[in-house]
Write a structure and sequence with these properties.
The complex is a heterodimer of chains A (116) and B (115).
Chain A lengths: L2 E3 L4 E5 L4 E3 L2 E3 L5 E7 L5 E7 L5 E3 L5 E5 L4 E6 L8 E8 L9 E3 L3 E6 L1
Parallel strand pairs in A: 2-12
Antiparallel strand pairs in A: 1-4, 3-9, 5-6, 5-10, 7-8, 8-9, 10-11, 10-12
Chain B lengths: L3 E4 L2 E4 L5 E7 L5 E7 L5 E7 L6 E2 L6 E5 L5 E5 L8 E8 L10 E2 L3 E5 L1
Parallel strand pairs in B: 2-11
Antiparallel strand pairs in B: 1-3, 3-8, 4-5, 4-9, 5-6, 7-8, 9-10, 9-11
Classes of the chains: A mainly beta (116), B mainly beta (115).
């Protein structure tokens, strides 16, 4: 079965600083990878996803993520953080088929605090 | 186009009471999901429905039942609520065509407290 680890429970950055949120997955083949963001009291919104092809994917709100097969990672980055980026971020892995068809496995989440 | 809607937004129950959480989507998606979110544990899948008329257990199904009423609606029922079911519940839907996991779209959530 697949699993996802987000090693950082809480990250604090200053506004304007760069950001990298870590995500490591465990899966026997190339998984489908997602990053979602959750603002306080809200549902989850998709930031970006990787299915195949170019390993650097662009998302909404200026975010990007890079799939690195050798490291089983899919880290999320943003060159300059805005105060409105403060939220909780979830990495998730899905599989192409089989018994886990359609199901996502989520990491524990990383809470991002942005200081002015 | 409302996306995924959930009712109610908030609910307080006493131990042993029952209730049904409602979810509807207007995107003509095949698959629908129920998750619970607890601090530090991410989202855990309770039940899912790959198509109308089918349902299957997820990671934490005990204490819950579901009904896929039609393609639009997927309800979650707590028959006898327990304090351990205090959580935020999210419904999601996705198209999932051709055997491929697709983007899931989430509702705003239901915050449930069981006393």
């Amino acid at each position: 079965a697949q699993s996802v680890t987000q090693p950082d429970i809480h990250i604090t950055v200053s506004e304007g600083a760069s950001l990298e949120l870590r995500c490591n997955y465990s899966y026997g083949a190339t998984p489908y990878l997602f990053w979602y963001v959750q603002s306080p009291g809200q549902g989850l919104q998709l930031l970006l996803k990787y299915f195949s092809g170019d390993t650097l994917v662009q998302g909404i709100k200026g975010f990007e993520a890079e799939f690195k097969r050798s490291q089983s990672s899919f880290n999320l980055r943003k060159p300059s953080v805005h105060w409105s980026d403060a939220a909780e971020y979830f990495c998730a892995v899905g599989t192409p088929g089989g018994t886990s068809y359609g199901k996502l496995t989520f990491g524990q989440g990383t809470i991002l605090t942005v200081h002015p | 186009n409302a996306g995924v809607t959930q009712t109610p937004k908030f609910q307080v129950l006493k131990t042993g009471q029952s209730m049904t959480l409602q979810c509807a989507q207007d995107m003509n998606h095949n698959s629908m999901y129920w998750y619970r979110q607890d601090p530090g544990m991410g989202l855990r899948l309770i039940y899912y429905s790959a198509s109308e008329g089918t349902t299957d257990k997820g990671e934490v199904p005990n204490g819950y039942n579901v009904s896929r009423l039609n393609k639009r609606e997927f309800s979650l029922r707590l028959e006898s609520a327990a304090p351990s079911q205090t959580s935020v519940y999210f419904c999601a839907s996705s198209e999932d065509r051709g055997g491929r996991t697709d983007t899931q779209y989430f509702g705003p959530g239901t915050r449930l407290t069981v006393l």
